[in-house]
Structure formats: C-alpha cells, structure tokens
Amino acid sequence: MFFFLPFNIEAYSAFAFLDSLDFHHVLIGKGRSTNLNLSVGTGVRTCHRSLDNRTRYSRIITMAAANFFRRLVRKKVLSNSDLETSSLNRCLSVVDLTFLGVGSTLGAGLYVVIGQVAKDTAGPSVVISFLVAAIASAMAGLCYAEFAARIPRAGSAYVYSYVTVGELMAFIIGWNLILEYVIGTASVARAWSSYFDSLIGDKISGFFREHMPIHVAQLSDYPDFFALGITLLLTVLLMVGVKESARFNNIFTGVNLLVVLYVTLCGLFKLKIHNWNLSEKEVPKGNGEGGFLPFGFSGTMAGAATCFYAFVGFDIVATTGEETKNPQRSIPIAIIVSLSIVFLSYSSVSAVVTLMCPYYLLDSNAALAQVFERVGWTVARYIISIGAICGLSTSLLGCMFPLPRILYAMGSDGVIFRFMGEIHPRFQTPVLGTALSGLFAGLMALIFDVSDLVDMMSIGTLLAYTLVSVSVLILRYECDANLRGGMNPDKTSNSNPSMASSVSQHANTSTFRLHNLILHESSEPTQITALVTKVAMAVLSMFIIALFWLSILSYDALRHAEPWAVSLCVILALGLALSALIIFLQPQNPARLPFKVPLVPWLPIVSVMVNIYLMLKLSTATWIRFGVWMIIGFLIYFTYGIRHAQSSDNVDPDAPSPEISLPSVGKPEEHRSTSASSGTSSFNEEDHLIAHDVLAKNKFS
C-alpha cells in the first residue's frame, strides 16, 4: 500500500512518536482496555484486534503524510565550512562582478526599450519611468545583497529560499529561474543575430527564408543557425572557465559604456528643451497630448513597468557566491554599484534621446542611431552599432552565465538530476550542466519565435524577487534557536551569552498569548515572535494580492468612486497596514552582518508589493505557459528530487524528525524502557508484529 510513497517510513518510530503525544490512547484506548479484559470471549478479542490493526494502519498513513509534508518544508542547513569552501574556482573580484552585473543588464534595454517606451507609453517622462523602475529594482537588489552577505553560495534565489523558506518553494524558484535564463539566452541570441543581419542588408534571414523556410505555427519562419552558433560559442567559452569569460565580459562592457558616454556627451550639443514642452497642436493625433507627460501619470507608471524589465539581470551577481573572492563583501558592493551605473546610463541616454528628437518621431527599434542620423551625424550610426553588438553580447553572457550555476546548485542538492552538479576536474566548472543548458537554449533560438515567450521571463524573475524579500523579513525576525550554520552570524559585541541562553530557553517553553502581537518579554526574538512574523507576512501577502487584484479588475469602478469598490479597497488596505504594523512591532535579531537592508520591514514589504502588482499585470496566456512548465517541474521533483535531495540529511530544526530521537524498529525492549521512563505506555507485541509486517511487505529503501 505504501510502496509508491516517495519517502521512507520508520514504522516503529512512527508508532513511538504518536504514542509519546498520547495519540495512541485517544485513538484506541477503548480497544486496548477491552483487549486486556481476560473475561471477554475470543471473538470479541479478535474483533478488537482487527480494529486495532486498522487504527494502526491509519496512523501509519497519518505519519506518512506528516513525514511527506515535513520533506516539502525541510530547509538546507549550511555549516561554516560549507560557506568557506567551494568546488568552484574563486577568481572573481569586485570589478569583475560589477562589470558582470552592468553587462547583463545594459543590453537590449538601452538599444530597444528606451525608444519603445518613449514613443508609445511615456514620452519624455521615460526618464521618470526609469527612476521608478530603478527604485523598485534597488529594493530587490538590497535584499539580494543581504542574502549574499549571509549565504555566499552559488544558486542565487534558489539557495536563499532553500535555507529560509523550504525545499518545495526553493525548487519552484529554481525551476523558474531555469526557464527565465533559457528564454533570455534564446531571445538575446536571436536579437543579436537580427541586429547583425540588419547591418549587412538582411542577407542571412533572406537566404534561410528562401532555402529552409519553416511553416509551423508558434515557430520562427526560418531556422536561425547564426543564433545557434552564437549560443554554442558562448557555451564553450563558459565551459573553459569563468575567468576567461569574465575577461570577455569586461572588455565588451567597457566598450558599451564608452558608447553610452559618447552618446551622452555628443548629444549635449544638439539638445532642444522645447522637445520636452511640445504643445498639443504640435503632436499628431494618437500620440498623446504633448508636454513632459503626454500620456499622463498612468502612462509614466506603465512605462515604469516596462522599464523594470530593463533592470533584470543584476541578480547574476548573486549567483557567483562560490566563485568570488570574499563574497560576503564583494557581492553587496557589486550589486549596488552595478545598479547605480545602469540607472545613470539609462536616464542620461533617455534624456538625450527625447531632447534631441520629438518623442513621437522616434524609431521604436533603433532610437539611438535614428536621432543622430536626423541631426546629420551619420558616423554615429556605426559607433552606436558597435556598442549595440557589444551590449547584446554581454547581455547574452549575462543570460547564459547563471544558468549552469543554478543547475549546479540544484543538482548538487539532488532536487534535480545529480549529474548536473558534477564539476570538471581541470576547468573547475559544471561542464555537463553548461553544455546541456547551452544546447537547450541554442535549439530554442534556432527554431522558436521567442517573442511570444518573453513575458514568461517576468514571472520567474518577479517570483524570485518576491521570495527573497520575504525571506529577508523571516531571517530578520528569526530567533537564534531556529538559525543554523551560515544563518547564524556572530552577535554584536554587546550581546550577552547568558541572556541569549535564557532567551533561547524561554523561546522553547513560552506559549502564545494575544498580547504577544504587541508586547514582548524580551528585546530579542523568540520562537513565538518569529511565528507571529511568519503568520503576519502570510496574511500581508494575501491582503496585497487581494487589494491589487481588486484594483485591476475594478479600475473603472474605482475611478468613478463607486462605494462598494472603495469600501473593499479601504478594508483590504487597513488589513495590509495592520499586518505590516504587527511585523514592525516584533523584535529583530541583532546579528552582525557585512551588509543589512535598511528600513526593515518597510523596504522589503514595498518590494513585495511592487513585484506582486507587476505579476498580476501579466497576461492569462503567460500564466498558462507558466502552469505547463510547473507541471513538468513537479513531475521531476516528486518522482526524483524528493527522494534524492541532500537536505534529507539535514532535518529542519523547526520540525525534528522522530527517527532521530526515538528507538529503531528492531529494539522493542529499548522502546519499552524509554517509554516507561518518560511516563508513556509501551506498545504490545501486536504493534511490533504489524510494524515489521509493513516493512517486510513494502521494502522501504
């Protein structure tokens, strides 16, 4: 009956565990007392023995379900040696990480997004759109930076969520990051090929359309072998070694930044302030109302939602924890510096472009080259094209670089196939994982029209950002009793060990009272306050989802101030504020870290709100594709990962497994003595017979 369950059960330990909780007496107390009455007939004893057997089988199922749930929420425990040692080559400096973050972010956003948002969505206020997007990205970046300071391991948001939230959620995050990077690599490779093809007069696409056309729906109209070749070349580069690919990235990112500087300085000589203050009569119909906000405030915010994705890529820095010198210091610095450089680049170029040319005349596909051609600077087109090639190359590296590292982290943990985590002895890189991921991305770039799948990148990214922000809150309000290894940094110098010990002891014995929401007996967190924070964060997330979902669906009703819509939104907003206030009133863990997010809990909460809102704005088709991808992932996890995950050796401290503290099946005498000494009744001989019978029939591994 239990052969197909994807986990092991110590049947006797399950009985002992339930018996120690007095479940045994509650469930079969009457049957046992009747069974001990020697005056009852044989038929009655047999009947009650059968009832006992069925009850014990139901308890086995109950224990199996509990064990199954415990595996879904078990956490990865990292020791100090885990944080200090790595199978990968530690060779990346702060400069390497900064250029890696800038290169992966400052690509298609610079040469495509600026023109599209300025022309169709925000007008000259695209500068404000990038500012809002930068603030939203910076909040997520700060949360990434604190996690990198706590857990400098390869795998980024996957590892962070595994250590703090649990295995199932970590798998969901990691599985979606794989999707994000695969689609990102394929789309940028295709964009690189298309841009180069346009420079030589569309000869590549024309040749393949004529000789090898594809007439299949949802696929490209021709196979892009050039995009496949680019992807495979980059795959080989990453397989050879990280330092070599970092040099390549640094050179191309440097060229890209020089082009940004060239565009900004040269554009200063051709600025026209009037282009930010066009009258409504000067603007053609259907292109807004002129001025700095031609599409209104809503257009600026819609532009910010699009510009947000132009900042996606900085999280690549957080995936390099095992290849970085002094990662706890280098990664936070690189994230903050790279985001600052990217924002300055986007804002300066968007300001120059919209001041040189009226926004409604911009070319949405090649705005930079077009504005310089309009003022007679033809040579600038070729300089900008060089920058575009370099920028797209580093963006391609940025999409491809984290993919094998995510596979390495998940393969090493066993949640996906373990061969993904094997390290080549010479190159010290995950060669097999890199090769398979590069081949998969290359095949997508070859035959798929990835434009329909671009929105799926957003789900994985935004979900990762949300989980990281939530995890920062969980860790900040967690007590030392629930922290392990790398999750338990040194206390501040004024911390009192005896006080910490008493707090820990109090945490294990205290019970929840209503006043625990606002009043606390200790200035440091306990298990009760940590639980209050987790529950409040879960309730807060539900209020955020409900509020934004209602505001999106009832936008017209809110705009006309209909009472039912306004009342519901006010109630949800009050619930959201109350949940946030409860979190704020809980004591924080005074752990000393190389970097900590400021304004906790407010900054992570705002980050969660922004990310959830953007996720709810995605199309229904995107969510359907997301569901299909998740079904495939769950099949892998529940048939392989849940049984092979390395964290099965590291049990969640919040939920100790009974197999650790209770006797094994083969020693009933020990169990009887242990039970007697602890004040609980022992099992009779029938318990042991059924337990051994279950193990013999099902052959648990």
From TrEMBL:
The Cationic amino acid transporter C-terminal domain extends over 595-644
Q: What subcellular locations does the record give?
A: Cell membrane
Transmembrane spans: 94-114, 126-145, 157-178, 225-242, 254-271, 291-312, 333-362, 382-408, 429-448, 454-475, 531-552, 564-585, 597-616, 622-640
Alphabetically, the GO molecular function entries are: L-arginine transmembrane transporter activity; L-lysine transmembrane transporter activity; L-ornithine transmembrane transporter activity
Specify the protein's topology with respect to the membrane.
Multi-pass membrane protein
GO CC, sorted alphabetically, is:
plasma membrane
Recorded catalytic reaction(s): these are: L-lysine(in) = L-lysine(out); L-arginine(in) = L-arginine(out); L-ornithine(in) = L-ornithine(out)
Q: Do the record's keywords include Transmembrane helix? A: yes
Q: What is its main location?
A: membrane
The cross-references to Pfam families, in alphabetical order and at most eight, read:
AA_permease_2 (PF13520), AA_permease_C (PF13906)
UniProt keyword annotation of Cell membrane present: yes
| InterPro entries from the UniProt entry | AA/rel_permease1, Cat_AA_permease, CAT_C
GO BP term, example: L-arginine import across plasma membrane
Region described as Disordered: spans on this chain: 650-687
Q: Which UniProt keywords apply?
A: Amino-acid transport, Cell membrane, Glycoprotein, Membrane, Transmembrane, Transmembrane helix, Transport
Q: Which PANTHER family match?
A: CATIONIC AMINO ACID TRANSPORTER C-TERMINAL DOMAIN-CONTAINING PROTEIN (PTHR43243:SF105), INNER MEMBRANE TRANSPORTER YGJI-RELATED (PTHR43243)
- Give the record's family classification: Belongs to the amino acid-polyamine-organocation (APC) superfamily. Cationic amino acid transporter (CAT) (TC 2.A.3.3) family.
Protein name listed in UniProt: Cationic amino acid transporter 2-like
Which organism does this sequence originate in? Plakobranchus ocellatus
